[in-house]
Amino acid sequence: MRHYAEAWSFVRRKGLTHYYLYPLAIALGLQLFSLYYIHAGVESGLNLLLQWLGLEKPVAQGSGWELIKSWLLQGTQFLLALAVKIYLFFTMARINRYLTLMLVSPVLAFLSERCDTLLTGRQFDFSLPRLLREMLRGVLITLRNAVAELFLLLVCVVLSFVFPPLGLVLTPLMFFISAYYMGFSMMDYICERHGLGLRASVQYVRRRWYIAVGNGMVFSLLFLIPVVGAVLAPVLGTVAACLSCLPDFGREAVKPAA
């Protein structure tokens, strides 16, 4: 949280606020796409699922027992639809989060490099091959983290269904897993720029897991705010990662001046 507060001040003082415009455009585009296409798809999918399960809306008629069965079926249909919509809401929130990171990764790589220069004085000459490499790596890391996170979350969900009391432990664990992979994505820009390969980057983030989790927790909480969170979280998360990790990559790394 402290590094996010510093990042907010740093972005404002150093004239980096224009970096908010790029995730803003992407967030608006994803929101419009979701509202226009995904809602209709979810409703159609729910109707097909209910038909397949034989839970179409019953007609309340006949004897008292028939009325009771009708009410029970309607209640089951409502609860099932609600559960599916809640699951899809959180799934789409995660997918949108990763889509935003993939689409904005070239901008975040530039931002991370700019923060490095402002904080340490290091200069990075422009190189098209390096830029393309950073863009590709940013997308690949995001995809890797998305697959790993969704797999682990699926395991947690299945275990919760098999043994419901585990849900008390697995629910907060799922949040920490998600936070870790979000923080990983923010930290990898620094690792790549300072010559760490993918394996070395994974090892570094594992050693500094508490930084990844702390960064990702604030990132995830910010992202819950519609549109605004998708604008603030990537920029502040990238700058916060620089503030917390750059001291590991050279003696000349410094904190921003007050």
What does this protein structure show overall?
Helix 2 crosses helix 8. The protein has 8 helices and no strands. The C terminus is likely disordered. It has one domain. It is an all-alpha fold and 258 residues long.
Helix-and-strand structural type: mainly alpha
Structural domain tally? 1
Mean pLDDT: 78
User: H/E order of the elements?
Assistant: HHHHHHHH
Distance between the termini: 17 Å
Percent helix: over 70%
Report the major sheet.
none
The coarse silhouette is elongated
Annotation, overall tally of beta strands: 0
Low-confidence stretches: 251-258
Separate helix tally = 8
Multimeric state of these chains? single chain
- Bin the strand percentage: under 5%
Rounded to an integer in angstroms, the radius of gyration calculated over CA atoms is 22 Å
